[in-house]
Amino acid sequence: MVKKNWFLLAILGLGGVAVVAIPPFLGGYFQHVLILIMMWIIMATAWNLLGGYCGQVSFGHAVFFGLGAYGGGLLYLHWGISPWWGMIVGPLLAVIIGIPIGLITFRLRGAYFALAMLALGETFRIVFTNWEPVTAGAVGILTSRTWGGEKLPYYYIALAVAALGIYVAYRLIHSKYGYYFVSIREDQDAAEGLGIPTTRYKLYALIPSAFFTGLAGAVYMNYFAYIEPHTVFNLSAISIMMILAVMMGGAGTLWGPVFGAALYTILSEALRAVIGPISYLVFPLIACFIIMFLPDGIIGDWDKIKRAFSRKEPVYAGGE
Amino acid sequence: MAYLDINHVVRRFGGLVAVNDITVGIEQGEILGLIGPNGSGKTTLFNCINNYYTANSGEIVFKGIPITHKSTHEICHLGIGRTFQVVKPLRRMTVLENVIAGAFLRTSNITEARDKALEVLDFCELSHRKDMLAKDLPIADKKRMEIARSLAGEPELMLLDETAAGLNPREIERAMELVRKIRDRGITCFVVEHVMKFIMGISDRMMCINFGREIARGTPEEMASHPEVIKAYLGEEYVKGR
Amino acid sequence: MTLLGQTLITGLLIGGIYAVIAIGMTLIMGVMEIINLVHGALMMVAMYICLVLFESFGLHPYIGMIPAMVILFVIGYLLQKYSIERVFGVETILPESQVLLTLAMALAITEIIRLIFSSDYQSTYTPFSGKCFYLGGMSISAPYLVSFGIAMAFVAALHIFLTRTDLGRSVVATAQDREAAIYMGVDAKRITNFTFGLGTALAAAGGALLLPVFYLFPDVWHPYLAKCFIITILGGMGSTVGALSGGLLLGIAETFGATYWSPGYRDVVGFVIFILVLLFLPGGLKKIIGR
Question: Is the ipTM reported for this complex over the cut 0.90?
């Protein structure tokens, strides 16, 4: 759907070199922020597959993040196995539980699906908080970091996962899957009439979405070395912020979530450093602003932004 | 056994019987036209064939295979394509992308799908619009795109629901040409329509229903002077003296 | 046996309070057909207003309720008119932007309150708060009982408003069929704004009724928003009778869950009901009751 533009490709190439070569020269804090950016890129790209492309807006993706994190955490807690195995177990757990969740909730459309996912996210949070014998409850799980204070190795791992996530998204979008996802989003009944088994394809969108969100959770587990239900299954900090990051950048595009995730992370860190606790207020306000004035994100609504600054008369090109 | 056999199909919505025991067989290669006043059950019948609604009783058989309870997408795979009374464009995709989505029914390869889509767009004389966003099309082209989208899936039978509604006379002529071309390509057509010029002009046989029941059947000429048809559309008084 | 009775009655009483809040939401959802996630946060704001009135003027929440309702009516009205209305029906890639907007508003409001009042737990404790009635071995909390009574009074008053006044009937008409109401001369926009204010005022009332019994802190609304939703879906969107029965049912189910299963899982009961209703009873109890 996008014609090859050599200029853009060059920028991409340069960016690729930069993200690999520069970080060793940055201080610990910046490396930390970069790791966060990578994690949010993974989450935003994953959510976008199901929400932006397939149109199934989930308000409960924290389920997959939390399951991804607890995959490794539970291995460590019960059997002393290194949480690095969680990088496989976590996402698999997210997918295995995600499939029945999808089969149940995909019967619902629009906002009801969103809310059912929200309910599920909260249910998992409550269950993981209370089911102490299995999950260690609110106390959480503490593991030891493989590389002590070193951040760089975690960064490269997160970067690799992010690159993989973007690649998988790219391949899916430019294939039959991508066309079918968008068809379902645009008009589910028309899609059925075109021979698309909509429930099956929604699942095909859910599986990579859950997998990569879970993978982000596993990365989190290994990097922070501590997880607890309130953080990893959190509604506003994870589920909603994922959506916000995608919205800011532009849902239904490949680079929108990447851009939005980076913007979100940098903004939230910068705000927290500058104005402290008030930053928790600023994000929801930014969200309100974006939803009211730039609902298709900065990339999606780029024309609107240009027009706002140019003072030229808007051109109406038939059909709105 | 006809190509598409509709046998005593009934569809109710609560207390209202929208389709009340309709039986008709469509032969391969013909164009069967279905007319009837507003609310007579035409679109509901189509929806039953496609299984957007499931028939409460009765049977629908296509090429010898019972499809009454198959899912909509399975029915499409078997070779029944459909356009909608109220067009359903995939709005934020281009015309070409819309038709590619239809072409993926028969292939998983994106290049093949694209080639097929371009060929179908050419057949439907929509190539000049291929990169336009579906939501920006005028109504006649939206309808044409919907036909193209369905054609890309290589249907053997097409259900055309009010293709001519909202079109001006010139557009109606072009739509009639397109349906004839589709039939010449070997595709059987079941057409629902209000615009008499369109449906009389292209149908081999016709059927008229009212209140969900069949009231007349025959060639277009026979229908034009059939007393029941006149009564249904214009009322009792107009039947006298015909 | 007494445990059963006590659980049943307590569930009923708390359910009545839930019902008031939920009726506010179901009215809004019926008229606007959007999911309103700021309802809970606005309830919380009303509770803080009552707190301030209690601490500054000694006004018990049952009285402070009145000014709180008025203030929240205005806040709700303004939010709807100047912010939510903008997003109503706008076509975007992510169709749920209205839902997100109300949620973002809720988060923003919560943070504002947190900055003003801090996250500390507050309460409006009076000697009355701890009083209990004893009925054949069952202990029933007095504030629960009084709050329930006031809640039912509100429900009755609302019912009269909706069925006997012109304004009320316009609200019902708009909820049932917006277009038809417009053709009958109802100014749908004005009614929508009014209904949002009214629904928010009801949430304010519900919050004030909860205040004598529960601790107050900025995030207090999270479970109540969820309950409201569940009740709205359970009862059927736009149905006040449904919201009432749904509220009572949820209150009872939750309390049974808390008593016989575990207090921590209280909220999970609601979510389970929610999913079950969405899957098996999409129209809500409204379908069964027939109103």
Answer: no
